[in-house]
Design brief:
Tetracycline Repressor, domain 2; mainly alpha; 2 domains; Arc Repressor Mutant, subunit A
Length: 203
Amino acid sequence: MKQRERQERSKNEIIEAAFEEFAEKGYDATTMEGICSHGISKGMLYHYFSNKDELFMACLRVVFGGLERYVAEQKQEISIEPAFEAIKSYYMLRESYFKLYPRQKPLFENAVLRPPKKLLEDISELRDPIRKMNRSFMKEVISKGSLREGVDMEHIASYLQIIEVLFWDMVSRFHAGAEDDGTTMLLKAEKLLDMLLFGVLRS
């Protein structure tokens, strides 16, 4: 095995161990010593990563890179009309990705909902490509529909983008206390999205 291949394998082993720790304990409670408990020598760990922040960002590059590629590929299959169905299908893409890679979801939520303050700028830069893709899709959907008078397209696109990030956390709270059934949860998600998009009161 060539040296470069050995180095890549070693780095991947470290990142795999880091994924386990961050997914289980979150950023704050994870330590370099904890990562070493997964069979990683301290010498090898510090040879490739000088601190926890570098490792967290390395894991997030895997998460956001994988999610971006998945959404970019899958969204080609979504018809942008009618708007409600298009937005619902688009929101479901993120959850579909994390069903394929469940270990990545806690890191995503940690980075998006509870980001370490000192890494805010780095995380924002890492998220930027998928945010732009989300915004572009939402604006395309909006442009095909009828907007309420006085509602600005840019504001709607921003609103939908914020909802997309928070949506599944909101669904979990909305679903709290119900049986943990996938079909039921999807129905709850659809009902919640309907209220978020169309409101709850008659005009």
